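As noted in the main text, all predictions were made from sequence alone. Below is one such record, for 3-dehydroquinate synthase.
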Amino acid sequence: MTTIRVALGARSYDVVIEAGLLGRAGEHLAPLVGKRCVPIVADANVAVHLETLRESLDAAGIASKPIVIPAGERSKSWATLETLTDRLLELGVERGDHVVALGGGVIGDLVGFATAILKRGCGFVQIPTTLLAQVDSSVGGKTGINARAGKNLIGAFHQPRAVLIDPSVLDTLPLRQLRAGYAEVVKYGLIDDADFFAWCEANGVALLAGDGAAREYAIAHAVAAKARIVGEDEFETTGKRALLNLGHTFGHALEAEAGFSDRLLHGEAVAAGCALAFGYSAAHGLCTAEDAVRVSAHWQKVGLPDSLSAAGIDAPAERLVDHMRHDKKASGGQIPFLLARGIGQTYLDKQVSLDDVAAFLALQPR
Ligand SMILES: NC(=O)c1ccc[n+]([C@@H]2O[C@H](COP(=O)([O-])OP(=O)(O)OC[C@H]3O[C@@H](n4cnc5c(N)ncnc54)[C@H](O)[C@@H]3O)[C@@H](O)[C@H]2O)c1
Ligand SMILES: O=C(O)C(=O)C[C@@H](O)[C@H](O)[C@H](O)COP(=O)(O)O
Ligand SMILES: [Zn+2]
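Prediction:
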């Protein structure tokens, strides 16, 4: 068992990682929830894991109530948020209670936001069931839903009280989803850890093929990196946490263009976005062309998109740039971009001109 502390003063919590943990979740949750009934929010694709979790709570003498919402990105919406908060109110959830988010990043972001605003703040616990949620979204307290204008534009910082990660639940995750989550794993290497990127180059294929040791190593490494960065800049004010947004300004524009649908998953958009960020950096002499090629080559090797065309996006450059204007990092109309001086040397550049980004995007093959 690996335990990683997310150190945030009064909001600190542990992330526990262990194969088979779901079946022992009751023991871990008992000290938090006491004898209160636990609402568990999940989608239909994790029904088998919901059953294991409920049995484990039952064995610990804890009652639970499942709330099942539709799977997919479109559930990060006002409509689903309203249904969910109404249901939680019907169940009589109190501020001191803990709602469990059992699922991927969609469930985690939605439940996190619902509990941030329900009665002005209730407790929640993340039990992530996708690779993406295990290495990224379950940790750090970014919660929210999408707006018509773009991705994650409505939300709050609201930290979970605990995160329980059972890597063995990934056995039921479709390969496409595993790959998409892997993009956020590699992101940590690209940001500030060239050795970890090299580890991904050597072990990514095995990880995706089901190598349990590689999977567990990557999850623990990623969570430790995220805990460190979030611990330094919880509310994304100093620029440190913004590094976790590598590939996301491009990526969110691609997701918006795909209509937040299964046409392009978040992790796929992030992979293409990282390739574009490195491509842009190389085109401006910030990093070498070899670095950009290395990023693209890795995405190709593991079957992730490394370009607009590979992501299936043929939108004109101006429309992509229009999506970017809603970026939450914008300040005074200027959008900072995560660029790279090399692999593991990402930095926030506040001087990038959107005209220049549009010119770069216009040159990308459609
Ligand atoms: N809050 C953050 O810091 C943060 C970080 C990264 C991504 N995100 C958000 O996370 C979302 C993407 O999350 P995701 O990739 O987990 O997508 P997701 O939650 O839609 O899950 C992907 C699919 O896998 C299914 N599924 C989940 N676990 C499964 C399992 N064990 N077995 C079989 N099927 C399973 C789901 O039902 C869904 O169909 C995006 O909205 C993204 O913006 C948030
Ligand atoms: O935790 C963070 O900080 C991140 O940026 C992690 C990202 O992978 C994640 O997709 C996040 O939701 C993006 O946040 P946003 O504020 O750019 O929408
Ligand atoms: Zn992301």
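Residues 136, 184, 248, 266, 270 surround zinc ion (ligand 3) (CB under 6 Å). Residues 2-172 form a domain with the Rossmann fold fold (CATH 3.40.50.1970). These features were considered when defining construct boundaries for the mutagenesis experiments described in Section 2.9.
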